[in-house]
Please model this.
Amino acid sequence: MKTENTVWHPQQITKQQRAQQKGQRPCLLWYTGLSGSGKSTIANAVDDLLFERGYHSYLLDGDNVRHGLNGDLSFTDQDRVENIRRISEVGKLFVDAGLIVSTAFISPFASDRALAAEKIGEAEFIEVFIDTPIEVCEQRDPKGLYKKARAGEIKHFTGIDSDYDVPANPAIHVKTAEADIKQCAEQVLSFLAERGFISSTKAV
Ligand code: ADP
Model:
């Protein structure tokens, strides 16, 4: 709980210095999309490409975070909001550390994504819509969750009996049914280079 005795310690090394040391501009890639759309897969592929090229990145993945930091949260509306709030806060700290951060969560509600954007700051928040038709997600069903949801074993499943707000104006729109994983990851890298978050010339 924050009290009046909680003081924010100014840090000596600035975010700009940390970014400069790493030869990149920090940002947060916020992947959103249905379960099985490919958020984790593409975020991991992007992370690999960044690592290979010598950039400094970190991936906060939905399932991993739910096992640790957010292990106490359920899937009620209230806990989903808290889930996103904590992820945004942690993401912001990692951006402060000069990193290119990725978060891979369904994040179905536009209002939650707007809160995250506000927390991070529009200039460093990059919404990545992993756009995959639900029929394709259901066919892939990498975790067997659609099968369970159709059988009524999982309630409030996004796309089946819980809504997904399609991003109105995502910074990056990735259509995974039309391109392979590598092409999708390269689309994200190209965006980062075009916007100057990474250099297009940094040697591997
Ligand atoms: P999410 O994180 O959105 O729940 P996952 O990344 O766990 O989704 O699962 C996506 C599945 O779709 C993986 O099994 C992946 O190999 C497969 N897949 C097939 N084609 C693509 C593509 N172009 N982009 C991303 N994933 C793809």
User: Anything to note?
Assistant: Residues 22-193 form a domain with the Rossmann fold fold (CATH 3.40.50.300).
